[in-house]
Amino acid sequence: MAARTMSAAEWMNVFPRWPKRRELGISASDLAATKYTDVFTVVMTPERWEQDPPLPEGTEAEVKRAVGHWLLTDFAIECPASGYQITYDRLNEPDWFYHLLEKTWFYDPTDFLDAYEAARALAWPDAPAEARFRATERQLGERPSRIPLVFAPSRVTGSYLYLPGKMKEDEQVAFAAFLAARGYYAGHP
Q: So which domain of life are we looking at (predicted)?
């Protein structure tokens, strides 16, 4: 019997959808009294979802490396899809990881951590690898997360973590196609 795989359409059915908009008529007090919680669907794969992010028009930066949908240029980590950029002179600032985790478009924490370490290697080529690893640990330990998931670079876990609920629909479609093309089937821990 052949191994079970899922089609891209089956994968799309696994991914969360944003709730439909509430009907008009909800009062401000009802809205203020509403309790919210974070719900994440996490997909972990043994291989990175390689993407081909283009630099925005008019950018003269030289791309040194791509990590998922993050680009490492000669001076910054960039996410062209969101227009977000962290220049290398700001890499030592605390709390980048948790700041990004609050963004609605931040669906690839493992790729970012890998890009963060690679950017530190570009910014400080003479620094030992251990210094990059400690910097990542500082980012992850900067403040306790209200999100009880363990995030780590791929060098630690050997896998790549994606949050499809934070992807736009076209990103979900492309991610579902990636999973289907690789023959993945949804499993539960």
A: Bacteria
